[in-house]
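Appendix B. Chain record.
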Amino acid sequence: MIKLYGGARSRASIVQLYLEELQVPYTFQLLDMKVGEHLQPEFLAINPFGKVPAIDDDGLIVWESGAIILYLAEKYDQLKTLPEKAIASQWILFANSTLANGLFLAEIRDKESPRLLSGLNKVLENQLYITGDLFTVSDVAIGTILGYAIMMLQMSYADYPAIDAYVKRISDRPAYKKAILGIS
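Structure tokens predicted for this chain:
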């Protein structure tokens, strides 16, 4: 069984969301990051940088949320072709670096957010999800970053109606409610 390590209000919820979507059994090891449990030798043996999330899948250790959800997508046969793998990698890397930085780094937010959100809005104008009309691992990455911006920055997507509708679709999913919003 997969063991997921995370902290309260951490990117571990991204991995938890995907595990819930896949309906894969897992255990969650909550680390109290306020008291430094993530910096103790036991966890540093899992991730030498002391960062969460991380998973232990029967001895295979994987850390970094994007790497973990790509691993899970591969393991559970969600990415069947090389082009599907490339597209998923593209969107997950975009979410975890370009989009997250553009929304969350105050010094570039005013310049980057409108450009990034305009582009995403165009992508979503004619399809339900990031890669088409089916929810995929790409939506786990993009949807959570957009959702985090609402929760942490009180960001509004009112000027981006396709994104606004997308975030509502994502946040209505039972797995999102459980993993991100804490509603069972």
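Further analysis of this model is presented in Appendix C.
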